[in-house]
Amino acid sequence: MASSAASAETVRAAINNAAPTGGDPPAGLCHEVLTAIGTRYGWDLEFTPIAGLNGILEAVTGSTADVGCSGIAPTNERRNMGLAFTSPIFTNSEFLYVHADDATGYTSLGELTGKKVAGQEGSTFLRALEAAGLSNVQTYPDNTAGFEALKAGEIDAYVTGVQSRYQTDVTKTLTGIRAVATYVPVAVNPASLVVRNTDTTLLGQLQAGLEALKAEGTLNPLVEKWGLPAPQF
Question: Which of 39, 49, 131, 132 lies at a CB distance of 3.0 to 4.6 Å from 17, suitable for a disulfide?
Answer without folding.
Answer: 49
